Amino acid sequence: MKKGIMRPGHVQLRVLDIDEALAHYRDLMGLIEVDRDVQGRVYLKGWTEVDRFSVVLREADQPGMDFMGFKVLNEAVLEQLHGDLITFGCDVERIPAGELEGCGRRIRFVAPTGHSFELFADKVQTGRYGVGNHNPEAWPRGLKGMKAQRFDHCLLYGDDLDETYRLFRDVLGFDLCEQVMDSEGNRVAQFLTCSMKAHDVAFIKHPEKNRFHHASFFLETWEDVLRAGDLISMTNTSIDIGPTRHGITHGQTIYFFDPSGNRNEVFCGGDCFYPDHEPITWDADKLGKAIFYHDRQLNERFLTVLT
Questions:
Q1: Where does the UniProt annotation place the signal sequence (predicted)?
Q2: Is residue 110 part of a domain?
């Protein structure tokens, strides 16, 4: 049952050098820098996103993800979910409006996998970059690099998938789109959506809590993904795998790393999900084909390089 969560709102990533990170996220990936705050954090967005920002970069000693945020319908939903999270057993932290520039108050909680998530109802909306909301052109001129359109999802590694699934299903109202099951009937990967997308967040079983696999950004076409691959080579950016196709979600994809070692994905396509759809199930012994449909095998980096 939907509980009023609309979509991913933002992700805050730790990077080792903010200037190197900007050369990657702004100049190579094509996100638009919109602000910096007194903490030194940099705010960016994809050009189709209406909210003021969707990516926050924070310089730190270790790379990884600080938190992922989801936007809810209104303040009443936010307050209801606050109580529901407490009832579930989560410790919930209230974060005042303005702690992130242009964002209203947030509530933050830790999932059983150890990852920090937050919910918010209000964020300044600046509209689609360069085209606005009134008689808009097809796309803005002057975009850089890959021309990333939006922050789409995160894939996270952690230990307690069952309780995390229960949290996201029963408290937050997410649907299970796809899953990977082992021979003993245990779920070892789960792809969850709060919308009609193939997934808005995903989890893979891992013995350590709170590990970050990748943040993903949407491109419009397969040609755009191929061009992203060219740009990765032109800039000597560290590549993981691709361009290729997923079996899970059927999206077309390429994976690569920012200068701090955080993995990124850009992709196009992907399935649509409706609430009456049954989850798609993959067997764990078919995981290679499920992740990389063409090669039908996983590379070691994809499984082991985490931040």
A1: none
A2: yes
